[in-house]
Amino acid sequence: MEKDKFNIVVFSGDMDKVLAAFILATTSAAMGMEVKMFFTFWGLNVLRKKKFLAGKSLLQKMMNFMNRGGADRLPLSRFNMLGAGPALMKVLMRQSKVPDVPELLKIAKSLGVKLIACTTTFSFMGFSKEDFIEEVDSYAGAATFLGEVREGKISYFI
Amino acid sequence: MNPDVTLDCYGLLCPMPIIKTAEKFKELKIGQVLEVLSTDEGIKTDMPAWCQATEQEFLGIEEKGGEYRVFVKKLK
Fold first, then answer.
1. How far is B54 from chain A (nearest CA, A)?
2. Taking Cα atoms as reference points, which of A126, A71, A124 lies closest to residue A101?
3. Rounded Cα gap, residues A81 and A64, in angstroms
4. What are the pLDDT digits (tens) for A35-72?
């Protein structure tokens, strides 16, 4: 029997929204679905290595200096307070044994979730593949995602 | 009920008990019964839903003072 497909676009780069995306992705993989996560725009920050500089042109470098990447340093969508909010949230989550984004990323990979990075954002932000973590499965565009959505049982956008 | 294997998920919140159950099931043989210990109330509906989606047998749940013992049989 072919597996049902679950697709999710991770547009947001906020910790809370990315957590929700990973919780649904890992749970549906645990429920036997074939899961693909498409990271685009701010969502690409989840898959970026923690590098000081990224980008080719000066403008891209300036943008990426402000828009820092790294799964463990995503901001909160509310009460970010220059990073105090996420730090507090991480403590609360640890107290309740809730996995953080880097841990969920590992769980997702072990359950066979595919992580796909959007090539358009990738290009206009001036990234290179060295700026991304090894866990990325492939790089693709909107048509690839829509092809999956057509065949998918569930498709979400966060 | 006599389980073959017990999985301790005390203190873990959704979705971790389900994810750990799915991982544990890969190690089990067909016909074996897994007991999942949990303090997450969500498990009452999450485990039957997981069993239905993955076509495993939900045998039942015992509740005692906010602690849950869930029994699941591996069918495939």
1. 6
2. A71
3. 20
4. 999 999 999 999 999 988 889 999 999 999 899 899 99
User: Where along chain A do its domains lie?
Assistant: 5-157
- Predicted model pTM: 0.91
Interface predicted TM-score (ipTM): 0.85
**Residue B9 designated active-site:** no
| Shortest CA distance from A103: residue in chain B | B16
Find the catalytic residue in B14, B16, B19, B75. Answer: B14
Q: Select A5-157's CATH number: 3.40.50.300, 3.30.70.1530, 3.30.230.20, 3.40.1260.10.
A: 3.40.1260.10
* Residue B32: both structure tokens together: 């074996």
Q: Which one, of A102, A98, A94, A31, lies nearest residue B40 by Cα? A: A98
- CA distances A54 to A41, A50, A72, Å, are 15, 10, 17
> Which residue among A33, A96, A107 sits closest to B19, beta carbon to beta carbon?
A107
Instruction: Give per-residue pLDDT as tens, A74-127.
Output: 999 999 999 999 999 999 999 999 999 999 999 999 999 999 999 999 899 999
What residues 42-71 of chain B have any CB closer than 8 A to a CB of chain A? 49-50, 53-54
| Residues in chain A within 8 Å Cβ distance of B53 | 31-33
Confidence band of A133 (pLDDT split at 50, 70, 90): very high
